[in-house]
Write a structure and sequence with these properties.
This protein is an alpha/beta fold and 268 residues long. It is built from 13 helices and twelve strands. The N and C termini lie far apart (47 Å).
Length: 268
């Protein structure tokens, strides 16, 4: 594996780590699906164990024989670019959290029908655009036994660098894909899923309502914090669900709400 010291920050080979936006990374022509950046040895290790293919590695020299050694040993014949922390900070525009970045091929995503075939509990992310929230939702979904995650096209990309890091690699552990359109019920109802929209309304039921737990196939629809779910999505849902609150608090952050809902409605 070639170890390549960084001599020029303008080296075109370093563009994925420095000069390409998230959108440009997704459309890199060198791979069919584009590339993304995974940060920290632990997250990169999770991705490799799930079969994600590395393209190039960027790290401080001390990590070559330290935290990144096992990654380098498993990553095959890919270039490993290296430089001191201050050089890497100039290159990337931020201090690396754990000193290691890996450019990786974006996996080929399955169809919704494929990942829903044997699923019983699903999270639908509807128009959530905060990268931290996306990562946290995936981490809760993986930890609490959710079978799959679906996202509407106007949601943030789960393979955004920050989303991947916040999820601690959970985006590689839970099957996920994009919905073909914003109409959630068109995909889920034909597959015999009941939908539960997390929203405040006059006819909402409590999260601990036994009817929800009794559903063999249930999809939790989580919306953005500011505007919440669209009225059409709420109106088409089989259930509208609220989390019981105290002290006149009306709602939780969407990441916290997803963790509570996933725990309560997990399959037993």
């Amino acid at each position: 594996m070639p170890i390549i010291p960084i001599h020029s920050l303008d080296d075109e080979a370093l563009a994925p780590f420095a000069r390409l936006t998230e959108a440009q990374l997704r459309h890199q022509s060198e791979t069919a699906q584009g590339i993304f950046i995974a940060e920290s040895p632990k997250v990169i290790d999770v991705a490799l164990r799930q079969g994600v293919k590395p393209v190039a590695l960027l790290c401080e020299p001390k990590h070559i024989t330290g935290d990144a050694a096992s990654i380098i040993a498993r990553a095959g014949d890919i270039p490993v670019y290296t430089g001191e922390r201050q050089v890497l900070s100039q290159l990337t525009g931020y201090t690396l959290t754990r000193g290691v970045l890996c450019a990786m091929q974006r996996p080929q995503l399955p169809t919704p029908e494929c990942i829903l075939r044997d699923a019983g509990r699903v999270v639908v992310i509807d128009a959530v655009t905060d990268t931290t929230n996306i990562g946290a939702i995936f981490r809760s979904a993986a930890a609490l036994g959710i079978d799959a995650v679906l996202l509407t096209p106007d949601s943030c990309d789960p393979l955004n660098r920050r989303s991947v890091r916040v999820s601690m690699g959970s985006v590689f552990l839970v099957p996920w894909t994009w919905l073909p359109s914003g109409d959630v019920t068109d995909t889920l109802h034909p597959l015999e899923f009941k939908t539960a929209a997390m929203a405040l309304s006059d006819d909402s039921i409590s999260l601990d309502d036994p009817r929800l737990k009794a559903e063999p196939r249930l999809a939790l629809i989580m919306g953005t914090e500011g505007d919440g779910l669209p009225k059409t999505t709420i109106g088409q849902a089989d259930y509208v669900v609220r989390i019981p609150m105290s002290h006149n608090v009306d709602s939780l952050n969407v990441a916290a709400a997803s963790a509570v809902a996933c725990w309560e409605l997990r399959r037993r």
